[in-house]
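pinned: reference chain
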Amino acid sequence: MSTQNPSVTMSATSTSTADSARRIGWLIRHQAIMRYRDPGQVISYILTPMILMLVFKPLYQRAFAGTGQGTVQVVTGPLIMFSVFTLAIIGNAILVEREWHTWDRLRTSSASTAEILLGKMIPVYLVVVVQQAVLIVYGCLVVGLPRPRSIALLAVAVCVWALALLALGAALATVLRSHAELGMVSDIGAMIISALGGALVPVSIMPGWAAAAAHASPGYWALRMLQAAVRGDTVGTLRPAGVLLALALAFGAFALYRLARGWGRSHLL
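pinned: its structure tokens
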């Protein structure tokens, strides 16, 4: 009766893990270089909400006079809206490989589908997190957003929302066939998700049908989560975070399923 040496098994496992980390690292480096060489979208999605915050600040302060919520709304609303626009950046990270006919080469390499997806998405995830962080800091220093009571809760809200957007963008990239389709869907989707979510006007003053539909928008949960995090409300932050994590898991599983079965192949364009 043969027995397997535990040390040999552990060594093989650690080698396999190291190889996987190395492959993911190379993919991350490649994607980071692509983002660095094409920063236009990221800059636009940071500067535009900054301008909107200043322009709409007097309006929101009058609308929320006496409540102290005007500044919170004017910062978190554009932040959520323009973070949704990053779906185009996320989707392009996958779609560009298909358009260049290099996705097939990635699939024939030793990297698994999960490794490829991680390598493509991690740099973009950091971009989305940084975008939100910059806008929050700007809101505090320039617009007058009250200092968040819990940095930890705010970090949770930012990271969870970025994860949900990442999964949604990856799922879109496995369905759409061109940059034009992706741009159309991300632009229209951003307006719908953010508008129904209360990024433009609070849900409480929306028409009845819009207020009812708001709960189906990821932007609604993201806005509630972010505003609760600014207030330091733990329960109000974690409940929407749970909803968004569930959405992220569903969209991420869908993207992985599609890519693992060849739906990223270039001939499907």
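why pinned: The two ends are 54 Å apart (CA to CA). The first helix runs from residue 6 to 37.
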